[in-house]
């Protein structure tokens, strides 16, 4: 009779009921600090925009935290352990997918860099070849030359995205509140840093040449 929203509930209704009755009811059953988990789920699940794999991972972990807390009260006729197992399975699947994507991106970057290095070496050792013969031996070199700046940018962005992904996971383990800060890292700033590094490497090469 005093419920904020009457059943049957949707998940959105349920989360609203949690927030409305948290202090008077649910805060006596589970730690009151878990209200932040309810707010996190409500904020992201019903936002009018898609979310990335990092956000999905956070939502799954928050869901596990909530289910685990309520398990101290009851198993709810076996429903709660089943739900916990399903969420855990989703976490594992997401982890496998993310690991595979990272490995795929790194493999592609390594292949591009290796291919370019091999082509440049071939060009240096066969300067007398005609242009048609060069295309037959190493056509990818000419494609790389025509789109050099785009290719380099793509490789750098792939490396940066991978580093940023690991940074987000690291900061999340150390301090969940730091995830947003880590996610806002600027790729442009990293690129400027690499420009300085390239200048330093150029000086070293010139020194070696002398």
From TrEMBL:
It comes from the Eukaryota. One of its GO terms (cellular component) is nucleus. This is SWT1 protein. It comes from Melanocharis versteri (Fan-tailed berrypecker). The lineage of its organism: Eukaryota, Metazoa, Chordata, Craniata, Vertebrata. The gene is Swt1.
